[in-house]
């Protein structure tokens, strides 16, 4: 048996048997090496947004203007934006995440930040395989117990 495929055997070029051709994986290659996976920024934003919301002590996400505009958008669309207050940079192997949060009054911000980082890193790395190199938190506000929520549905003053 020959190590070279011949034109008479149906091959048009001479290529050594057992070597990979550019753009082709060898038959024994794992599935992970047989193509390329790209993950959109919006996917990582949604994963991070869901992970942050699961942490006790987080009231909402987004800066003041983003929360106000988001509340209007949410009422029009009928569903809240999971990625509001989340910005990401996604590379081929790494991701960096910036979060704007509003915390509940009385919660230790230092402990909350550690919990948020753990939750976000675990969720993003587990679901995407990307290495999260940093999770930056900007605490934009503290929600006081007696403050009205403009983000939530409630009865208006007029009907």
Describe the overall structure.
By secondary structure, the chain is of the alpha+beta class. It is built from three helices and four strands. Strands 1, 2, 3 and 4 form a four-stranded mixed β-sheet that branches. Helix 1 crosses helix 3. The termini are far apart.
Please render the helix and strand layout as text.
Layout: H1 41-53, E1 58-61, H2 64-77, E2 86-90, E3 94-104, H3 109-128, E4 131-143
Parallel strand pairs: 3-4
Antiparallel strand pairs: 1-3, 2-3
What characterizes the major β-sheet? Answer: 4 strands, mixed
Q: What is the beta-strand fraction? A: 15-25%
Structural class computed from helices and strand pairing: alpha+beta
Please tell me what the overall shape is. Answer: elongated
Fraction of residues in H or I helices: 25-40%
Q: Indicate the radius of gyration in whole angstroms.
A: 25 Å
Q: Could you state the order of secondary-structure elements as H and E?
A: HEHEEHE
Would you report the number of β strands?
4
Number of helices: 3
Q: Mean pLDDT, nearest integer? A: 79
- What's the end-to-end separation, in Å? 88 Å
- Low-pLDDT residue intervals, each spanning 5 or more residues: 1-12, 14-21
